[in-house]
Amino acid sequence: MAVAVLASGMVTGVGLSAPAACAAMRAGISSFTETEFVFGGELLVGCPAPLESSWQGRERLIEMVARALDECLSGISSASPPEIPLLLCVAERERPGRLEGLDDSLLGDLEARLDRRFHPQSAVIANGRVAGVQAVERGRALIAAARPHCIVAGVDTFLLSSTLEAYHARRRLLTDGNLDGFIPGEGAAAILLGLAHDRQVESLCCLGLGYGREGATVESEEPLRADGLVGAFQGALQEAAIEWPQLDYRITDLNGEQYGFKEAALALTRCLRVRKEEFDLWHPADCIGEVGAAIVPCALGVALEAARKRYAPGPGVLCHFGNDTGERAAVVLRYGNGRRN
Predict the structure, then answer these.
(1) How many whole angstroms separate alpha carbon 287 and alpha carbon 28?
(2) Which tens digits make up the pLDDT trace of 114-140?
(3) Rounded distance, CA 144 to CA 233, Å?
(4) Helix crossing, 258-271 with 227-240: angle to 10°?
(5) For residue 301, with 0-12 CB atoms within 10 Å meaning exposed, 13-18 middle and 19 or more buried, which class applies?
(6) Exposed/middle/buried for 321, CB within 10 Å: 0-12, 13-18, 19+?
(7) What structural domains does the chain harbor?
(8) Residue 74 — very low, low, confident or very high, per pLDDT cuts 50/70/90?
(9) What's this model's pTM, rounded to 2 decimal places?
(10) CA dist., res. 179 & res. 186, Å (int)
């Protein structure tokens, strides 16, 4: 039986719960606002989560992900935290301005904040936007080894002075002087994985994962061929044992930079061999800004909400993500009765 996304929780700039955040994203509502950071004489626009201002730095990360986890766990009564591994995704180690100690002690500090212990197989995965797909893969293996559930969570923030200074120097931030940039955000999201329900009940099933590596990264001078994303697409569809006509829309980590849209369009051109009248492209960063390691559980939570509330374009969704260093990952999901067709 397929592994499914059973519940979700979110803390974003447009809502402090999954229903609120997804409703805002569905309506195209953003929460972009001027921050306290100044570059070139102008206040930088960002998308902070509307938490109390007293939470800062590491404590802010813990508070965001704790709220997302509480919401995710509240969705089912049968889940007991000591029985559930938590796979916590955080920023990659090479991220400029990354907060210290995330790999070593964030999980323990989070358990102390929640006053809960998770299963000993819990772990921190420090690989940015791609970490969430790697966590889903590990979660599937844990469930296959008889764990009833697994939580994949992600938390991240770009609203740190050292991080913003580095990205501004690279001309990666959206400003009046640079229209090809992203809006920095922050947030946390969590999804509960478990076996799909019986065949009489519809579930959002994870059918396939794929990976690739792109040599022509966002900051390189290499010609872009989208080889990494093509490989990720092919791997995910092959494992899912489905074809392109069975996919109805896409959810991605595209954050407003032209590079990502060019790569996605090129990869689709190279892979798609059938005519599709519509193939919607959803990118939550349009509303919540760049949220880094939180994007995968956020995207899968969006897919779950859209499927359950029947506003998704169809049951089949392709999600794809990429790190600045060239790693690419894709996930094929399908809402239905657990069958692959």
Answers:
(1) 7
(2) 998 999 999 999 999 999 999 999 999
(3) 24
(4) 50
(5) buried
(6) buried
(7) 3-195 (3.40.47.10), 203-336 (3.40.47.10)
(8) confident
(9) 0.96
(10) 21
